[in-house]
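Chapter review: from sequence to fold.
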Amino acid sequence: MTTTDTGTGFPGPDPADDVWEQIARQVAWLDHHNGHGDNETAMRLLKLGEEVGETMQAYIGATGQNPRKGVTHTRADVADELCDVVITALVALHRFTDDPARHFTLKLTRVADRLGVRSGRPTFRQWLTAKAAAPWPEISLYAGRLHKAAERITEPWTTADELRPLLDGNYNRGLLDHARTDYEAETVPDLTFRKDAQ
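The C-alpha cell string follows.
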C-alpha cells in the first residue's frame, strides 16, 4: 500500500487505494495469522457482534444515558465504532463469497431498487446535452441556448457550479439558474418511502 502524509505527521493510506483492496489486505493478514478454518469464520462473525456492542456502548456514553458515568463518548466516537462495524463486516464477507465487492454491490442495488432510491443520475453536463438535443417540444429553449453558450467554453466542467464562473453575462447565468432548477427536479430521486418498501 502506498502511503502519504495525512497532515497529522503520520502516514496514511494512499487515497488512490481502493477500499476493497485495503479490506483484502486485512483479510490476507488475518488469514496468515489465524488460518482459514470454520473456527476462524465463527470468530470473525463474533468480532462483528463485539463491534456492534462497542457501538452501542459509545452511543450510550455519548447520550449520557448512564447517570453514574455521565457523558463519556462523543458523536465522533460513535462514528468510529460504526466504521469498525463496517470494516469487520466487509472482512467477514470474504468468508462467504469469492467476489465480495460484486456481491455487496448487487445487494446494495437490490435494496436501493426496493426502496425506490436508486439514482443512475446523469451529471448536469450530460443532462444539458440531452435536453439540448431533444426534439420539439421536449427541448427547452433556455437549455438549448445555455448549451450553445457552454459549447464555446474550453475549460473542463461537469456540474452547474463548475459552469457558472465560466459563463459570460447575467443572461447566461440566468439560463443556468433555470436549467439547474429543472435538472434538480428531474434527476433527484424521490426519497419518499414507497408503501411496499420493507
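Two observations follow directly from the output. The longest helix spans residues 38-63. Strands lie at 3-5, 11-13.
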